[in-house]
Amino acid sequence: xxxxxxxxxxxxxxxxxxxxxxxxxxxxxxxxxxxxxxxxxxxxxxxxxxxxxxxxxxxxxxxxxxxxxxxxxxxxxxxxxxxxxxxxxxxxxxxxxxxxxxxxxxxxxxxxxxxxxxxxxxxxxxxxxxxxxxxxxxxxxxxxxxxxxxxxxxxxxxxxxxxxxxxxxxxxxxxxxxxxxxxxxxxxxxxxxxxxxxxxxxxxxxxxxxxxxxxxxxxxxxxxxxxxxxxxxxxxxxxxxxxxxxxxxxxxxxxxxxxxxxxxxxxxxxxxxxxxxxxxxxxxxxxxxxxxxxxxxxxxxxxxx
Length: 305
Prior knowledge:
The protein is mostly beta strands. The protein folds into 3 domains: 35 residues; 99 residues, no CATH class; 121 residues, no CATH class. Helix content is 11%, strand content 53%. It contains 2 helices and 22 strands. It has a 22-stranded mixed β-sheet that branches. A hairpin with a 2-residue loop joins strand 5 and strand 6.
């Protein structure tokens, strides 16, 4: 009789453990609504931090965070206005520390996000962090995030943006601009100065550009529209086509080659050496700074605006 009770207890224990295990797996796979899963009953909360600082134009904004989206926009005030919003499970939201410092040189924002480990890793953490910043229209910035997209608008200065997990958007920017992402697209509208772009995971779209440009991607096509004099352009991709629109009166030395398609243009080109359906090497109008175009995975089109 005692042995029978032991067997029953063991069987019940095994069934309970199996049910718990299957429930967790279904929760991970999305087959069960997370709100009904065993790990979703942790209280959630919202947290907001708002600060403002009087600054001088030409200062430096630095943001360094492990996760979160960043949006920065210029305005006509000598002031930096910062809003940080955090949403997620209460115990994780309250554990995050933000180190925010202001000096004559600018504003520095660092996020200290504790890394927790358990049997189930970081599942259920579900943190959502966003940084919204207004800065003087002439301001420098270094923005770093490992887990979000970045947007910069209406700012002139030295601008450096890096993200490992999202797209980058820039609009109405002036100066030396460098943007890099490992996991998304790059979109730029209205840029003046020197512009460098790198992505391993998406297309690059550049419109209304009056700048020296060096743009490269391993994961998509490139589109480029010039609105000013030729300052030198280099576009390279291993994963798509290149489409270029240039002013009719542009002066350029053009060097375009593809391994995966053809090169075409509606400009009259003075050919240097030999040409083929997959390459063009010559001058447009009076010649000028180099326009270098390379792709291994598509065609190249060079058209008049």
